[in-house]
Amino acid sequence: MRYLLAQEESLLEPPPIGRPLEVEVRDNLEKALKVLKQRMSKEGILAELKKRRYYEKPSVRRKRKMREAHKRRRREQKRRAI
Questions:
Q1: Confidence (pLDDT) at 12
Q2: What does the pLDDT profile of the chain (82 residues) look like in tens digits?
Q3: Is residue 29 domain-resident?
Q4: What's the pLDDT score for residue 1?
Q5: How many CA atoms lie within 13 A of 27 on its CB side?
Q6: Whole-angstrom distance, CA of residue 14 vs CA of residue 17
Q7: Does residue 11 belong to any structural domain of this protein?
Q8: Which residue, 3, 45, 68, 75, could crosslink 40 as a Cys pair with Cβ 3.0–4.6 Å?
Q9: Does a structural domain hold residue 58?
Q10: What pLDDT, on the 0 to 100 scale, is given for residue 3?
Q11: Structural domain tally of the chain?
């Protein structure tokens, strides 16, 4: 019974969040937003948001991951050939 309660409590906790991105705003807010967007892009946060916008079936996820891995391998072989 205690195990079930602990399991239920863990379901109520929010998912872990990555480390926060901080940008210093000095004079220009537009520059700070540009830097923030660049850092988010570099961290992969924007791509992750786009992926999670809609539900992706497990079979579709597997196919996408296989496609991405194939693309990565092809790119790596191309770089080694040069």
A1: 52
A2: 444 444 444 555 555 567 788 888 888 899 999 999 999 999 888 888 888 899 999 999 999 999 999 999 999 999 998 7
A3: yes
A4: 44
A5: 0
A6: 8
A7: no
A8: 45
A9: yes
A10: 47
A11: 1
CB 3 within 8 A of CB 28: no
Q: Phi/psi at 60 (nearest 5 deg)?
A: -70, -40
Query: What is the domain range of residue 77?
Result: 18-81
3 domain-assigned: no
Looking at the chain, the number of H-run helices and the number of E-run strands are: 4, 0
CA distances from 33 to 19, 22, 28, 43, 47 (A): 18, 11, 9, 15, 17
Residue (of 45, 21, 47) closest to 35 by Cα position: 21
The answer, as to whether pTM is greater than 0.85, is no
Joined together, the tokens standing for residue 10 give 């863990």
